[in-house]
Amino acid sequence: MGTSISSMQMRNLPIYQSGFVNRGTFYCSAASSATAIPSMDKVDFLKLQNGSDIRGVAVSGVEGEPVSLTEPVTEAIAAAFAAWLLDKKKVDASRKLRVSIGHDSRISAQQLQDAVSRGIASAGLEVVQYGLASTPAMFNSTLTEDEAFLCPADGAIMITASHLPYNRNGFKFFTNAGGLGKSDIKDILERAANIYSDFLAKGYLVKNASESVKKVDYMSVYTSDLVKAVRKAAGNIEKPLEGFHIIVDAGNGAGGFFAAKVLEPLGAVTSGSQFLEPDGMFPNHIPNPEDKAAMKAITEAVLSKKADLGIIFDTDVDRSAAVDSSGRELNRNRLIALMSAIVLEEHPGTTIVTDSVTSDGLTSFIEKKLGGKHHRFKRGYKNVIDEAIRLNSVGEESHLAIETSGHGALKENHWLDDGAYLMVKLLNKLASAKASGRGDGSKVLTDLVEGLEEPAFAVELRLKIDQSHPDLKGRSFREYGEAVLQHLENSIASNPKLQKAPVNYEGVRVSGFGGWFLLRLSLHDPVLPLNIEAPSHEDAVKLGLGVAAAAKEFQALDTSSLDKFVQPH
Predict the structure, then answer these.
(1) What is the DSSP letter of 232?
(2) pTM higher than 0.85, yes or no?
(3) Is the preceding omega at residue 14 within 30 degrees of 0, hence cis?
(4) What confidence tens digit (pLDDT) does each residue in 37-50 have?
(5) pLDDT, tens digit (0-9, with 9 covering 90-100), for 466-480
(6) Before 152, cis peptide (omega within 30)?
(7) Sequence-separated (6 or more) residues with CB below 8 Å from residue 447
């Protein structure tokens, strides 16, 4: 393998003390030649699409989950991205396009990185490998202008499957215009299917990347930019976080850099930080700021170490959340409220775009307490970001697009959903409070969400559509789901205790009994998720009964979780 480092070796390197592996630029071949030819099966490439990402199974061993991201499939996808990029960029022949490649801590990362490198090189493009990296850093590499680090890249590929289990992996793609959208991904997968059928016809041989592959430590550029942002916000103080004790939980994903590379240079103490080492088996908890076990782990660490703040990232660092010194979680609606408060101080009256499952309490907090405007849109971080961009283009100012999952993007940061940058905005608040003489740690953040009404009871139930049920009568699960929603909407109209939301972009959202519910169709799966928030369990049941009455007419809908919820205990 030349100079590349296996994920097992990576695990044993003290890379967070000594800086990232692969300092400077050196060269190696992307794979050894004369490797055994993998078996080639027919592949439905479009099934690998997951919204604006590509996702699949990369490691065998889980029953019922055959490997779909094989080396030939991966190489075809990378070659397809190269072809798509050549079409988009339309450069003259004198300049080679350059693609940067990074990966998170998954165990399949090295193998996929090699296959991606071969695919890019086979199209005649230059390959620059970053090794362990974060998704936001990959987008940033298309903006950075620094030839010493072979930047800017014309395109970037992040190898990640976010918080999914260890056997999965996938790809996110970027140009300097941002992340690719759904239609681009479909285009790339269609091209990949043609390239793959060529492999099938002509035989597939694992060969060296025709050009040598370059390696750079881009993460050092990215992290120094984050450090500079905090110093600047604090009035150019070298160590604006001196005296703060901040704990990082990276969940063994790619976010471990934040402790040694961002917080420590700013003067913070990071002792007690946990799971910073990359380990693609995720032995401690799922790296996911929405996961209860993950949030419990960071909360316990903050309380036991009496830290000022806890910070947690997902696997590829495009999502994050925090915990204050009292152990209060700053995620989901609370994180949106906190970011809204920060952004509305900087941009009074601006519109905050969120996904559809945000609470009514958040709307009144943004609009009545902060004087902003809450624009509740659809689920899907790309949908939320694209809507904020659209609003700006039609003259409605928006500076923040954020989803309850922890994906948050700011206009000032090129509309990139960067979990590390979101946390930098919180650190800026801590630093400026300290500079102005406040000595009460993270209380400045807690105070910002004062007055946010939170439901006493919240639940999400998932109603699955059985696609083989005769009640579908030849319809797709999407058409069937739409029929369920239409029927629910009609039945609400005749119920005086329930009011349909006047403006709504996804599913059926209804207020009543002091709370609300939203029934919507999942973006990708044959599932209707139902979110209910209410002042009590009893009120939540009353809302649930309104849905249950309408849903019972649809035999292909599995309402067992809802039936159980509304049954008297």
Answers:
(1) H
(2) yes
(3) no
(4) 556 778 999 999 99
(5) 999 999 999 999 999
(6) yes
(7) none
